[in-house]
Fold this sequence. Notes:
About 35% of the residues lie in helices and about 20% in strands.
Amino acid sequence: MIALKDVDQLGPDEAVQELARLAKEIAKHDRHYYQKDAPKISDAVYDELRQRNTAIEAHFPDLVRPDSPTKRVGTRPSEGFGKIAHTLPMLSLDNVFNDDEVREFTKRVRRFLRWPEDETLAFTAEPKIDGLSCGIRYEHGKLVQAATRGDGQTGEDVTQNVRTICDVPKTLCGDDWPDVLEVRGEVYIPTTEFAAMNAAQEDAGKPVYANPRNAAAGSLRQLDPGISAKRPLRFFAYAWGEVSEPLAKTQYEAVQNLDAWGFSINHHMRLCQSADEMIAVYELIERKRATLGYDIDGVVYKVDRLDLQTRLGFVSRSPRWAMAHKFPPEQASTILEKIDIQVGRTGALTPVAKLHPVTVGGVVVSNASLHNADEVKRLDVRVGDQVLIQRAGDVIPQVVKVLNPDREGRAAPFAFPTHCPCPLSTPAVRELDEKTGEAGVITRCSGEFACPFQRVRRLEHFVSRQAFDIEGLGKKQIAAFFEEGIVTEPADIFTLKARNDDLKLEAREGWGETSASNLFAAIEERRQISLERLLIALGIRHVGQTTARLLSASYLSWQNFHSAMLAAKDRMSEHFIQLTALDGIGDVMAVAIVNYFAEPHNEGLVERLLAQITVQDAIPPKNDSPVAGKTVVFTGKLIEMSRDEAKANAAALGAKVAGSVSAKTDILVAGPGAGSKLKKATNLGINTMTEEEWLALIGN
Length: 700
Ligand code: AMP
């Protein structure tokens, strides 16, 4: 063996060579260790290589290589994770659970595309890996950034951690990749490695992970990449985000390209020409499930042609061109120990089954929702019963049935409470269904603004991830602040710092100087908030992310939206009609929104909050399109495309698609057979055009 020169004897040229040699050598041993689980050298020798590398880098900081092993392990980012805004959102997938729904999905796609009945339409089918998704960005073939999905718009910067994953190339193979390539896929932990890792955790007296997916998430989201590096993380590439050039013409070819560029792809992916073939692949993959070596929770189908994927586009949080076919739920039996009543943010009383903990599908379950009073009655679940429970993927566990209803000495039927379990014990009422006007299933606490349980839930919702997302202010802190009367409504959050001379947060239990000042900084950061997030945060009944996004894109500014909602109190007003005309806002929702702002209690709450924050205007979508911001209504039969595609297309160009004609309508696109809408539009003097004229206008 050649004796190595002491580090302080090395000249710059020798250092360059030595760093290159060490980078290669260490990478080789990493592959043996992480990928093949077969180290060729002892830990001590491996550590020596690393130490030498670190020492040379300390001597020659300018010579540190971009692929240096020190960038892969042991460097601790100074604080939390940075945030990365996804250039293209990372979406979720819609789910189906049976064959009929798969057939319906393919039919829906064909209808949208107006696909001829006698022509086949290809789909890919591949395992749905049960890990966490990650987007990895390459520029000029080099890995530059990696982010978790986060809320779909913004993820965590896990670049250093992803660099430690053995089957993620740091440099792409070949040379035909686009200069900008964001590869997306799943980070996971193989099942055998998971078992070994948990055993080691247990031996070390550390907490074990419930399942490989949690373990993968916990391992990737480590502040110290050195810990991630020691975990058996793997990556399957199956999709992409921003690309400077199209990857291929089809999904199938694009994934083969990812393979050629050095990624691990899943070899169980198949190309299918019909729903029957898709279902056959699903059944095959399901049979292989136990022997794959990694957890999967279903099969994903994707329209193969990428141009068709573009035409199909997205609906709120998931693409129209893909579908997850989930495996059937896993079941287990256990004892029902108690039925608790939880109070939600809208006052709904939800019965929750408290179960003797049992493992279902790899996760320990001790709670299951019983939904409402009718469901408790239907199941006739009673304390002490043995119950069958099930869970499918992320779905909240459910009670399926009682297994021993005829046993002796069974408890009395559960008496659903007539009062809220909150300290005020406000009467709970079974309300009418807003849509049908008949007795509904929800029992609601009537103390809307007084009930402390509801108030806490609303505050929790206010700071939740899709809303204000204030770091360091979670359920625990909200509960404590509320109990002490420090935060009783949203505006109070923003005055915490100003009141801190009295509050002395840093001196409270569980707090210190750093955590208090971090919290104040996080709150400060959120003083500027998007209209969409604010609308989610207010917790208006029926207004979730999709509606908030729609409202924000339609009204663009808080002032505009707020004054319109106040004016819409008059149901005959143009403002109310305009609100209900928005595609996606029904009457019940419109009434809930208008009622929220008409309620004096909310008026004060909103006013105090708005005095503390600045609401950023929404950016009008695609300003350059001639139909951006215009309200468009489609009526009659369309020839060139389906109604759904026409609507989706218009929305993508920034138009507001409405379902009915009003004075606010800018364009009516009328096909053959148009009736009353056309008449009304003509009477109102609205710009009316044929489908052909519309297509010419949008340059299609
Ligand atoms: P869900 O989070 O249940 O809505 O499912 C959507 C997620 O499935 C995506 O965000 C991906 O993380 C994950 N996924 C796993 N395997 C695949 C696959 N083969 N294709 C697409 N998504 C997948």
